[in-house]
Write a structure and sequence with these properties.
Elements lengths: L1 E3 L7 H12 L7 E3 L6 H12 L8 E3 L7 H11 L8 E3 L6 H12 L8 E3 L10 H9 L10 E3 L7
Parallel strand pairs: 1-2, 2-3, 3-4, 4-5, 5-6
Helix pairs in contact: 1-2, 2-3, 3-4, 4-5
Keywords: Leucine-rich repeat, Repeat
InterPro entries: Leu-rich_rpt (IPR001611), LRR_dom_sf (IPR032675), NLR (IPR051261)
Length: 159
């Protein structure tokens, strides 16, 4: 099942309602698109609690442009480390994770319980990506023996 609520004015209160769907037994929701909503870190924290629930079968979560910062990244990483996490694709593009948020996400990919295959934290342009963040993008390495097949951190150029 797919639920697309992109640009639907979903806020933290809406996330609280969605968590019950993620925790339901059995949960049939496999893809959730909440892009371009004002979820902020508080909404992402609620969603992360649902992601960490053993009944959650969500495989794709799109949070592009949801005002997520380092705090929201920390909540998501905690959920990704949960056993078992079924999430395979996470879109955090057009957010503001900062240097430390990117470091948290990168470290989370190394956890054996993390099954992400695609992580997108592309910036929204030069105005949202600071030089410090570019430093971590360049230093990031992946073990090709892991399940991480797609990682998009680029500025659409290879320097």
């Amino acid at each position: 099942e797919t639920l697309r609520l992109s640009s639907c004015l979903v806020t933290e209160e809406g996330c609280a309602s969605l968590v019950s769907a993620l925790k339901s037994n059995p949960s049939h929701l496999r893809e959730l698109d909440l892009s371009n909503n004002d979820l902020k870190d508080s909404g992402v924290k609620l969603l992360s609690a649902g992601l960490g629930n053993p009944h959650c079968q969500l495989e794709t979560l799109r949070l592009s442009g949801c005002l997520v910062t380092e705090e929201g990244c920390a909540s998501l990483v905690s959920a990704l480390k949960s056993n078992p996490s079924h999430l395979r694709e996470l879109d955090l593009s057009y957010n503001h994770p900062g240097d430390s948020g990117v470091r948290l996400l990168s470290a989370g990919l190394e956890d054996p319980h993390c099954r992400l295959e695609k992580l997108n934290v592309e910036h929204g342009g030069e105005n949202t990506m600071k030089p410090g963040l570019r430093k971590y993008v360049c230093d990031l390495t992946l073990d090709l023996n892991t399940v991480n097949r797609f990682l998009s951190l680029s500025e659409e150029r290879t320097e």
